[in-house]
Amino acid sequence: MFQSFETTASPANGAPRVRALREHLASLGVDGFLVPRADEFQGEYVPASAERLSWLTGFTGSAGAALVAPGIAVVFVDGRYVTQLAQQTDPAVFTPGDLIKEPPADWIANNAGQGFRLGIDPWLHTVSEVRKLKTALESKGGALVLLADNPLDTLWTDRPAEPLGRVTIQKHQHSGTLARDKIAAIAEGLRVRGADAVLIADPSSVAWAFNIRGSDVPHTPHPLARAIIHADGLAEIFLDARKTGIEEKAYLTQICEIREPAELAETLGALGARGATVEVDAGIVSYELVRLIEAAGGTVCEATDPCALPRATKNEAELAGTRTAHVQDGVAMVEFLAWLDDAEPGAITEIKAVERLEACRRRVGERMQNPLADISFDTISGAGPNGAIIHYRVTGETNRQLAPGELFLVDSGGQYRNGTTDITRTVAIGAVGETEKRFFTLVLKGMIGISTARFPAGSRGVDLDPLARIALWKAGADYGHGTGHGVGSYLSVHEGPQRISRAAMQELLPGMILSNEPGYYRPGAFGIRIENLIVVEAATDIAGGDRPMLGFETITWCPIDRRLILPALMTREELDWLNAYHASTREKLMPLIEDEKVRGWLARATAPIA
Predict the structure, then answer these.
(1) How many other CB atoms are found less than 10 A from the CB of residue 437?
(2) Measured between alpha carbons, how far is 412 from 409 in angstroms, rounded to an integer?
(3) CA atoms of 64 and 94, how far apart (whole Å)
(4) Helix or strand or coil: residue 214?
(5) Residues 132, 216 within the same domain
(6) Nearest CA to 123 among 5, 40, 11, 53?
(7) Tell me: the pLDDT tens digits for 291-323?
(8) Does residue 348 share a domain with residue 298?
(9) What CATH number is given to the structural domain containing 509?
(10) Which domain holds residue 517?
């Protein structure tokens, strides 16, 4: 299994660990310490050795921070994790904070006392974060203290070793562009902008630029590595040699110089010493790396990661591979849903469902000679009230049966060499109530609204987000997460800069892959989410219109539970889209399904709604 069901943290640990941290901070001359979820690579998924926030608080979500001071300990999370935070942390120790409305810097400006001194580990915070924290602290007459050692690492006596996952080569048939061509394009951009070098700090960008993949963190196949690309075309990758075999080392030496991670500081110092101008992405790079350049006399120029947009706008090889991966994944999903539907209500648990779904993906991958390399994130398998926990992770302690009359929400994905998938389906376990059906239909209307959207060039995710929410808004409801995130090509399932949300300012460009996943959550009762992946299509003319419009191609193929749909709430256009989607799903998947019983289920699940 790629997924564990162990409970990895406990609320009971919070009190003694916070107490120990406070005692340690007093000796460092600071009034508080900020613990981010991120590691020194600023990724969403971090290795076990960097799970500092979880170790301290018990909270295991993928986004958050904790600020510990003598009289208070605040854990900041976004809307996805409010319920989870309450379950995983000790309320006598931790106060919930809002990561979006009042992030740590704003909290300090609004609540910290005069002269407040905040300690941070400068490896774990970006340039942008440090800038905001400094501004907030200066408004209080305080100071930001950069600690040489992270106090948590001293207290965490059984901290796991850092990962040494093996690196693999992403072949040209999947990447579509040679690494040397990507490096050359980045170098040319540096020359145009007058910079001497760029520090690539995002491991996904390193993986994309050098056409390699890794296995250092759960479910995201990038290596924990950084790179420097110079304007003269020289490329250096800072990668532990123990992560490469003979083939991988031979490949990399043809396109770059391989250096140990410990050499990065010296290399950046040498760049600074000769007065080089080095580009960094302030939203990604650790503040400590910028300090190394500037302290040696170099100039840091803030710029967008040059890999970000090229990585997000997939080429034809990447899109073709992703489409194929989604058809394969659809077959696995249909086999799983047919099995689920055939079971007696109450006979299956959340964990059993996760195990079966992964087994389906493995079996189909072997049959289609495109093995499942990993899951793209821990499967969210939420029955009844657990479905209302947006990023729920089932454990042996929380595992419950899929009971009759409840909704079951399963959000999952696979990592295949040719693409990354992410799909959510909410299904009925037996007969469910009209309330559940009504909100399911409203969510479906929002998903179709995004699927059928046409929009002019220059449109951003923030412009489209209301299309997914309007039906819920009219019913006095909403959901506390974005409508869609970017998705990588056998890389991170959550990829920027593209997304669809209230804060999504990136222009949507042809070739970008996004999720389309509105939802509705009633705490203690049920959760609903329907998710397909979509690709931004190039602008085309509309009959009778006067300008070309972009649109979306849906690439996820799996039935949407017809039993939960109230046709009377849908328009003719929405029903036509759904029927056409189901017809295409049946056409694409039926020839690839061997079991006659599953074929019969697919035919029934995709029958048209009158």
Answers:
(1) 19
(2) 10
(3) 13
(4) coil
(5) no
(6) 40
(7) 999 999 999 999 999 999 999 999 999 999 999
(8) no
(9) 3.90.230.10
(10) 313-605
> What is the rounded distance in angstroms from the CA atom of residue 421 to the CA atom of residue 370?
13
Q: How far apart are CA 128 and CA 135, in angstroms?
A: 11
Parallel, antiparallel or unpaired: strands 32-36 and 117-120:
parallel
Q: Are 267 and 196 in contact (CB under 8 A)?
A: no
Q: Alpha-carbon distance 361 to 372, whole Å?
A: 6
Residues 357-397: pLDDT tens digits?
Answer: 999 999 999 999 999 999 999 999 999 999 999 989 999 99
Query: CA–CA separation, 426 vs 381, rounded Å?
Result: 10
Residues 6+ apart with CB under 8 A from 192: none
Return the pLDDT at 500. 98
Do the strands 277-280 and 257-259 form a parallel or antiparallel pair, or are they unpaired?
Answer: unpaired
* 357 and 482 share one domain: yes
Nearest to 73 by CA among 111, 124, 121: 111
**Tokens 């997924």 correspond to what residue?**
3
Mean pLDDT of all residues in 525-547: 97
| Residue percentage of the chain with pLDDT more than 90 | 95
DSSP code of residue 220: B
Together in a domain, 516 and 424 = yes
If one counts every other C-beta atom within 10 angstroms of the C-beta of residue 11, the result is: 18
Residues 6+ apart with CB under 8 A from 270: 296
How many CA atoms lie less than 13 Å away from 331 in the CB half-sphere?
23
| CA pair distance 53, 35, nearest whole angstrom | 6
- Looking up tokens 């979006």 gives 100
Fill in the DSSP letter of residue 392: -
* Cβ(222)–Cβ(216) below 8 Å: yes
pTM above 0.90, yes or no: yes
Phi first, then psi: give them for residue 313, nearest 5 degrees: -95, 95
| Residue 583 near residue 606 (C-beta atoms within 8 A) | yes
Please name the helix (run of DSSP H) or strand (run of DSSP E) that holds residue 528, with its range, or none. Answer: strand 526-529
Residue 569 DSSP code: G
